Amino acid sequence: VNAAEELRISDPTVRRLSGYYRILGELRAGGEETVSSYDLAHRSGATPAQVRKDLSLFGHFGKRGTGYAVAQLETEIRAILGLNRHWRVGVVGAGNLAHALIAYREFAREGFEIVAVFDNDPAKVGQDWNGLRVRSIDELVDAVREERIDIGIITAPAEAATDVAQRLIRAGVRGILNFAPGKLFVPKHVSLRNVNLAIELESLSYALK
Amino acid sequence: VNAAEELRISDPTVRRLSGYYRILGELRAGGEETVSSYDLAHRSGATPAQVRKDLSLFGHFGKRGTGYAVAQLETEIRAILGLNRHWRVGVVGAGNLAHALIAYREFAREGFEIVAVFDNDPAKVGQDWNGLRVRSIDELVDAVREERIDIGIITAPAEAATDVAQRLIRAGVRGILNFAPGKLFVPKHVSLRNVNLAIELESLSYALK
Prior knowledge:
Two copies of one chain form a homodimer.
Chain A: H1 2-6, H2 11-29, E1 34-35, H3 37-44, H4 48-56, E2 68-69, H5 70-80, E3 87-92, H6 96-102, H7 105-109, E4 112-119, E5 128-129, E6 132-136, H8 140-146, E7 151-154, H9 158-171, E8 175-178, E9 191-194, H10 197-208
Parallel strand pairs in A: 3-4, 3-7, 4-6, 7-8, 8-9
Antiparallel strand pairs in A: 1-2, 5-6
């Protein structure tokens, strides 16, 4: 694992590892102790060669005839993905998407805890959302520090996203998940992932054409 | 374009094409007439070699010194992605995520129109959502046919997703975008994309570790 942590694993590989990690969890829950690269490939949609290549990145070679040890591989991928710790998350933009994210049980299960919600609308500030008080955007910098927030999720409209990202960065957030359309620029020490839901529909429309 | 339509373009390539398509739209809006593979690479996060390889898939080779014609390339990628037509979309599960998707302006701009929302909760059925009446899940099969719905989006909970997918498929939907956790099985003639929001956070936690 030490050697693997020094590797730069590409984003598509990280996504495939996330997929294997879920499959391994299901296999373990179903009582399976080993899994072949063929089975992991079939379940994940990758090729067996791709699975073997991905897992060899951190020194894993399935044994002929027995395959990979499910629980061990799951534990190692969890560590690689940084899921064996707790992440504190703040959401900026108290709209429907924020509501949906707060209700999304997968986040909590993987160690991502939403600890604060912010908005600039005075009508929303002070509302109680399942025990979270919606805070003013003006409280953001202080709250990120007090609540030790690692990751900010931007669900604000596109026109506010740049300002929100700057506040998050100033406050010391290290990672940003951005749902707002348009490009954000962040300094090198901050990690940014953009989620564009239209791209998901476009990959469907390509297939349907 | 005819030759390209016969190619099977991989899903990661389709996603990069979606990215180039957005960048080309911004460049055109900014009055740019040409773009180099270096510039497209810089803006999209791909390498120049990757950009050239992706675009060569459909016979495009940027000219030395001038690059690619922005408007032409945008038009061709729009056609490749199936965005030069209108897609009728139905959302199953009238919760916060559905609300957020209906409000998501990018969808309409790219030709995806949400024409129906369904739920199995009698308290929600009949509600008016921005002019859309929430329909009972029991109306789904008839409504998909009457409304000529091409794509179904599943925002229902995991335990309902399999049943919802079966109803959508029975009704004749050709594409499904699934937000519910867990694996769905669909017949070959139906295209499925799974969106797992936890995977986005996992790729951030990998980077932050």
